[in-house]
Amino acid sequence: MSYFVFGFYALLLTASCLAAYFNKRTWFLTIFAFTLVSFVLGIVGGTSVLRNVAALAGLLALAAMVSYAFREFLIAIASNNMAKELRTAPLTAAFGLFVIFTYAIAGIFAPWIAPHGEAEVIATAFAPPDETMLLGADQLGRDIFSRIIYGTRNTVSLALSGTLMAFILGALAGLLAATTGGWFDQMLGRISDVIMSIPALIFALLMLSIFGGALATDTTSFALLFVFAMVTGLLVVVARAERSIMSWVIGLAVLVAAAAGFSIGMLVLFNPSEVILIMVVGVIYAPRVFRLTRAVAGNVVVMDYIEAAKLRGEGKWYLIRREILPNSTAPLVAEFGLEFCFVFLLVAGLSFLGLGIQPPTADWGSMVRENATLISFGDITPLIPAAAIALLTVAVNFVVDWMLHRSSGLKEQ
Amino acid sequence: MVKSKDVLLEIRDLQIQGYSDEKWVDIIKGVDLTLHRGEVLGLIGESGAGKSTIGAAAMGYARDGTRISGGSIEFDGMELTTATEAERRSLRGSRIAYVAQSAAASFNPAHKIIDQHTEAPLQYRLKKRLEAQEDAIELYNRLRLPNPEEIGFRYPHQVSGGQLQRAMTAMAMSCRPDLIIFDEPTTALDVTTQIEVLAAIRDIVDQFNTAAIYITHDLAVVAQMADTIKVLLKGEEVEEASTKEMLDNPKEDYTKSLWAVRSLKREQKSRPEGATPLISVRNVDAAYTGGVKVLDDVSFDIHEGMTVAVVGESGSGKSTTARVITGLLPPMEGEVLFKGEPFPPDYHNRTKEQLRQCQMIYQMADTALNPKVKIAEIIGRPAQFYHGLKGTALKNRVDELLDLIELEPSQYYNRFPPELSGGQKQRIGIARALAADPTFIICDEVTSALDQLVAEGILKLLNRLQKELNLAYMFITHDLATVRAIADEVVVMQHGKVVEQGPKEEMFTPPHHPYTDLLLSSVPEMDPDWLTTLLEERGVDNIGDAASARIDPDDPRVSK
């Protein structure tokens, strides 16, 4: 028995007594349950286990404090309306926001934060951690810490662009299908059914093995991007142009120019293999977004204010933009967070299989695979990128939960 | 009938708070209430007065987001505010029952009516299943439901609204409770159906000597049902008195103003000689895709600056007629003429100018205004869309419109619809219609979702606007009091046909078409003996659906 053990139990018991005295029921139950658990663990595992338990509890408390402080910080700097919303956020959501915020900083400022270059070989293979390398070196002697920081940028930006693509295409198609109805709705619905009937991972593997190898050139990716942008843009033109031929001509002209501009822009930001990955993700996830959007918009379309707008003679584009979209944003934003997690995991999974982001670009999924051998030596380094993936997914889900809760209008009892 | 005089429910200084905007706000501010066995108490007041909240509190129940913050509720010697949830729950269903406003929404559509009926007696182990079913059939019989033997074995959607409401009353009776709370049980029903439900409720409450709290905003209805009436305003009691005294001699100003609403009336205008009607519906037949004919040879005219009321019960094709005129539902046969020119049947083919002429005001202001769009844009959009107004001109126009509907522009300009009250929302709906500068407005049950005082305000506003802007209204309603107040001409519809039409004064003087007669006689009057007299005159079995089914097709007045 050490002073630590006495101190630990004394602290817990005092805290539970205080909670009981001040009638804080939930606090008391939490703390006292924790005390009982640590009694058992202390008896079974001894001092060392107790130390781990204390460290874990401390970590949780730290996370809770950080989340609390971060929420208060956001409330302080946000505008009035925003602050009101933020006050409803539970600690988990604040924690999620904090993690997302940290990742964003790490991703944006990667070159300044990382001590070494992304593909810079600075040591021998699997060199252990020292004062220049926080987490040691990987199988080629590159700094793992720097690669994780760069990986944030690559993996997250890719997943984010993929999700955005899926959303723009899916949401537009869904809104248009809901407002138009009839055969157009049926056609889009059946196309999405066809895509959704193929398992996502297999579909991705198929597409990547077609486009991923020798075809991963600037020309192919430009063509793919252009087609994607044309399809998306065509939906906008359909909604805007209504019946006049002139507006169709103008719309199509603008569309071709915009699609070309968009494709060139994407090629500046991403290399061809990444572009293809983004496209694949976009095509796979767009039908899911389409289904949700169509269902949500379908409930809005039957409202009297839509009828009033139609009778006024408003076009589809106005209906979508001003009447339907503002009433469907909440579920769509929540869905965005959820889909982002799935896309993120898919991209990481594909990279782990060697089909995703190509070396030497740093990426969490491929880092797990490259350093997997270290596991057999009892080294947990390969788990760190995996943990980074897990943490972000959990964080996004925390935030999404909060948003879903708000958009569904459920009240806390 | 002798009523024993022991106190059943006693509420003292009840205070209830609701949670909104992160604060607890008082909803009920100290209401007292005493109810004896077998007594019926009417609670009236406009929406937000706390009627339903008090009704729920009488069961010891506080709705989500509300809490009972003070006072006492004593039910038959048991204090409900301090009782445990289990104790309170054991009262509900067995000793206190509740009949909700919308029976259609309150029955579970997945179970047969009788299974839901027998749930409470079985739960409380008062009866065996078969006994409970026999009892249910007995109750259906007493409530004069058609086919009492068989109706319980149907699912809720297979039964009409009025019958469902009676089945719900039967269900409330299943454990022979001491107290039933009726929360606006007839508000959602047509006048003809309302009568059957009222008669049934009154009978059964009398037969079993059950005490009841009858919540409603319709004075004429409460006058038929209640022994005493309590008037509420914003969570406070205004006054309480026996029904007779309350009707003859209301003391408070607020109560008097409630009584006065029903006397709104205006001059009847007559058609200008030889003028082309503004809107002319000619021999219109219409059906929804694949369905049966909803409109059958409907014809009527609406002249400039006049109000034509279209009346009939639900399902008679009133709203469908409106959809045909607006072009949402192109007719199968016949046409709609606007100033003598045919209107394209589908609104897609109408020009902006044609669309502008004909505007619509909806029944439910909640769904008619986009909750995510500012008032300024809701009203400004038609002005911008049709007249191309921009910037200051647009803002001035919106201000002008807000002035016209008697709302202070600076206060409402930047607000969103959910922040407004029902009456204010309806005014915004009117302003949106006016923004287009129309000549003709369809008002689809615009006042039926509103309280009487608010509804009166809306009707006065519509009247004033008609005078100032020379508008023509097509006023769809099932409330004949509204028709009396505002119409110049009346069109009576039944089963998709126009059964009678003509100037208002003629329509309200006999002889009528038997259906018109039925409609007119079914409107509750402020006389507490009205229902009794009516039932004596017509016989218990000749009201509501039964009566309308009994109209003789060979009656000379039908083929008039």
UniProtKB/TrEMBL annotation, chain A:
Annotated ranges, domain ABC transmembrane type-1: 152-404
Classification via CDD domains: TM_PBP2
Organism superkingdom: Bacteria
Keywords: Cell membrane, Membrane, Transmembrane, Transmembrane helix, Transport
GO cellular component term of the entry, any: plasma membrane
Membrane topology value: Multi-pass membrane protein
InterPro entries hit by this protein: BP-dependent_transpt_permease, MetI-like, MetI-like_sf
Subcellular locations according to the entry: Cell membrane
Record's keyword annotation contains Phosphoprotein: no
GO biological process terms held by the UniProt record: transmembrane transport
Protein family according to the UniProt entry: Belongs to the binding-protein-dependent transport system permease family.
Name of the protein this chain belongs to: Putative D,D-dipeptide transport system permease protein DdpC
Organism of origin: Roseovarius halotolerans
Record gene name: ddpC_3
TrEMBL record, chain B:
Family: Belongs to the ABC transporter superfamily.
Subcellular location field: Cell inner membrane
Source species, domain of life: Bacteria
GO biological process, alphabetically ordered: peptide transport
Pfam families the UniProt entry points to: ABC_tran, oligo_HPY
Entry-linked CDD domains: ABC_NikE_OppD_transporters
Topology relative to the membrane: Peripheral membrane protein
Name of the protein: Glutathione import ATP-binding protein GsiA
